[in-house]
């Protein structure tokens, strides 16, 4: 068996770097650790953290193809964040004009959750713990 320690990071490729950077930093509140522009690739790489923990690498590349991204599509299903108060989270999202799905209840845990989409349609879940 492999000796995995934890998830190191999640890599996301966006279609509009400025829009996605604003979404992940201003709407979700992730902290910028490092931003690099790679001239030879015409590409940005933005390292983002949550509560000081390195979490997401946000990339931009020219002419990226679209990807199917609904939660039930094959591949990565969604990115989920734990929140203490889902009602406060949805109020904050609404304040940023971010639409969220109706709140649902996990049948196995009785915990509430909802989904939004990032600027490229990547499903993001907020799960009340």
Automatic annotation (TrEMBL):
One MF annotation (Gene Ontology) recorded for this entry: metal ion binding
Cited InterPro entries: Fosfomycin_Res_Enzymes, Glyas_Bleomycin-R_OHBP_Dase, Glyas_Fos-R_dOase_dom, VOC_core, YwkD-like_dom
SUPFAM superfamilies for this protein: Glyoxalase/Bleomycin resistance protein/Dihydroxybiphenyl dioxygenase
Superkingdom classification of source: Bacteria
Domain VOC, first and last residues per copy: 6-129
Protein's recorded name: VOC family protein
Keywords from the UniProt entry: Metal-binding
Gene3D superfamilies hit by this protein: 2,3-Dihydroxybiphenyl 1,2-Dioxygenase, domain 1
């Amino acid at each position: 068996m492999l000796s995995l320690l934890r998830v190191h990071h999640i890599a996301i490729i966006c279609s509009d770097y400025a829009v996605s950077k604003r979404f992940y930093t201003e709407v979700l509140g992730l902290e910028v650790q490092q931003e690099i522009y790679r001239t030879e690739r015409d590409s940005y790489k933005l390292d983002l953290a949550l509560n000081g923990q390195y979490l997401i690498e946000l990339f931009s590349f020219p002419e990226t193809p679209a990807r199917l991204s609904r939660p039930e599509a094959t591949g990565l299903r969604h990115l989920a964040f734990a929140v203490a108060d889902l009602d406060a989270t949805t109020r904050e999202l609404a304040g940023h004009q971010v639409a969220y799905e109706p709140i649902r209840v996990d049948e196995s845990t009785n915990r509430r959750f909802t989904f939004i989409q990032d600027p490229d349609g990547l499903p993001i879940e907020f799960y009340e713990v």
